């Protein structure tokens, strides 16, 4: 698709809001590869939480050893890992609407996002509860969170745990954004003059982060997952804006060319802002504070604005930086990157209960913390990849997640058919 063709998308006649527009097929390998690597970074993030001083009171598999170096790395990545997913999702969403029309787009997203959420939510919930139950019976050195759970189990007056979408919160929120994008497209938002005005490098770099401040001010730092079983407004004001940004980049792909000269500045500013952000974080968050926030909400003070300003600028700048870096180095297809891309959805769904079981089993083993981290991460990756190759790739599960493939020798690499598209 040429830039000339793309520039026409925002001026399509009104009937294209419900009808497909035919354009030459384009494959955005770098977006597939960036989001796949970000998904695998999620496994590293969850594995690292077991050794995080900041989240020691919260994570199920927290051990007696931890390292501040873990926190320095993972909470930097935490600020832009999920925004990358939502931006790429918005890019492919508007592409698929233009390609197929609204009704076909909604059917496709229901099959790729809503159906897997409905199918895997009870299965993964049962697997996670099994892992926690096994740990309560077999692990000697229980983490603070497991000790809390055990105490609650022995208290007949304890309230039930709040209902959560668990790590499938991404699918839940993504489908909400899909519905929102359908409404916006139906009412010609993406064809409006406002979209043309805000589709500029200056707006994205200087105004967009400021628009996110009200949403993030309502959340503690580091910000939690939007895992409630209802739409959370702060998620729309943060992740939703990244989804819209992805739509804008598709409609005006020259935006990335406009942002390219700022690439090094984005990285430097992000690192400096993160130094301030990390300095302002507490060494650890007490379990009582975490539980109070989860049940009663977060009550910020005005000093919280300092953390939030750092947070939003890092999120926007590093997300753009990842896109620019991916476009330069990952805009190609090879067998290794393709396998990572193909398997990433399954790895996302599958990894957490497996990782928890492995880390629970290693809790009482007296070996170095870093060796535990390596073993749990490697075995989780290996298990996820083997299960994908043997049980998912060519089965109905794989058809639901990535679309049905015609045969094993010819696999079409069409980005818009995947989870986030």
Characterise the protein shown here.
It is a single chain. The protein has 421 residues and is an all-alpha fold. The chain has one domain. The protein is 67% helix and 0% strand. The protein contains 16 helices and no strands.
**Oligomeric description of these chains:** single chain
On the 0-100 scale, what is the average pLDDT?
88
N/C terminus separation: 17 Å
Count of beta strands: 0
Radius of gyration: 22 Å
Q: What coarse outline follows from CA principal-axis ratios?
A: globular
Percent strand equals under 5%
Helix content: 55-70%
Q: Extract low-pLDDT stretches.
A: 1-23, 408-417
Order of helices and strands: HHHHHHHHHHHHHHHH
Q: What is the number of domains?
A: 1
Number of helices: 16
Topology:
Elements: H1 3-7, H2 29-48, H3 68-100, H4 102-138, H5 144-153, H6 169-186, H7 193-198, H8 201-217, H9 233-251, H10 254-259, H11 263-280, H12 287-296, H13 304-329, H14 335-362, H15 369-392, H16 396-402
Helix pairs in contact: 2-3, 2-13, 2-14, 2-15, 3-4, 3-6, 3-9, 3-13, 4-6, 4-14, 8-9, 8-13, 11-13, 14-15
